[in-house]
Amino acid sequence: MVGKQYRNQEYLVKIGKRIVEIRDLRKITQEKLAELTEIDTRQIGRIERAETNVSISSIKLIADNLKISVPELLDVSKLADK
Fold first, then answer.
1. What pLDDT does 80 receive?
2. Which of 20, 29, 44, 46 has the fewest CB within 10 Å, making it most exposed?
3. How do residues 21-65 score in pLDDT, each as one tens digit?
């Protein structure tokens, strides 16, 4: 089953990969990020898999808890596997 496709699906995929990349660098699990942000673990997974169009406030929470700025988080040109 294919999930919902959003207008900027390719960018959402890159944002999800960027979150995973930074989370992995910080050695933070999805569960720990969920705990820190108070965003459900399943929702963190959906964001990382680009299955949802994440809100700005959630992006800010994620960035803050990954100790990164929002612009840096959203800069997908910094993806290791461009």
1. 79
2. 29
3. 999 999 999 999 999 999 999 999 999 999 999 999 999 999 999
Residue appearing with tokens 């820190």: 36
Q: Are 19 and 73 in contact (CB under 8 A)?
A: yes
- Phi, psi of 29, rounded to the nearest 5 degrees: -80, 165
Give the global pTM: 0.87
Give CA separation, 9 vs 26, 50, 62, in Å: 26, 7, 19
The HSE-up count of residue 63 (CA atoms within 13 Å, CB side) is 16
Cα separation, 80 vs 33, in Å, equals: 21
Give the 3-state secondary structure of residue 46: helix
